[in-house]
Amino acid sequence: QQPVQSPQAVILREGEDAVINCSSSKALYSVHWYRQKHGEAPVFLMILLKGGEQKGHEKISASFNEKKQQSSLYLTASQLSYSGTYFCGTVPRLGSGGSNYKLTFGKGTLLTVNP
Amino acid sequence: NAGVMQNPRHLVRRRGQEARLRCSPMKGHSHVYWYRQLPEEGLKFMVYLQKENIIDESGMPKERFSAEFPKEGPSILRIQQVVRGDSAAYFCASSPTSGGYNEQFFGPGTRLTVL
Fold this sequence. Notes:
The complex is a heterodimer. By secondary structure, chain A is mainly beta. Chain A is 0% helix and 53% strand. In chain A, a hairpin with a 4-residue loop joins strand 7 and strand 8 (70-75). The termini of chain A are far apart. Chain B is mostly beta strands. In chain B, a hairpin with a 6-residue loop joins strand 7 (65-68) and strand 8. At the A-B interface, strand 4, strand 5, strand 9 and strand 10 of A face strand 4, strand 5 and strand 10 of B.
């Protein structure tokens, strides 16, 4: 099943903070975060893995609650360049259904940062 | 190090024609994934290939769609006898190995329009 992202959209002024959430009904091995600007390729931001390991941009902050199968992406002191649609993609744990290579993406959260 | 390359970037076809989309993975990557994205939607997995092998095509329609990743040359997604509903952005991604531990790097996409 597709992970659920919230909110669907958020509008910020430059310098404000935002949190984007991603929730799955399956036990997860990893959560991947991407940002996509209109008409462009999704750009990798971060992977959060079961067990607490993280890989990604140093300036991006995120969390992964393994018990609740939820991840949150924290955008602090937002800049105009943060605007875009944020997608989470999930990889299930072995035995939870699905494959360990197939990313299932949420519908995205549209973030708009205004001056 | 060049990123994932896709061509063409835009493709217009009339109903009933064939569409061929090409993807060259990042250097050193032997795993390729194809995704389809409809407007205002997330990315939907279509197929996962390694060199000369289709590993998982569970997201690909059984009719009219096929994919390959030959020993030499790019991966190709072929859509035969296109219909208006095939209009979408098609992205490919690559990774050095499979597994939810690894980030997938996306190409710029091919935007297919069926008239």
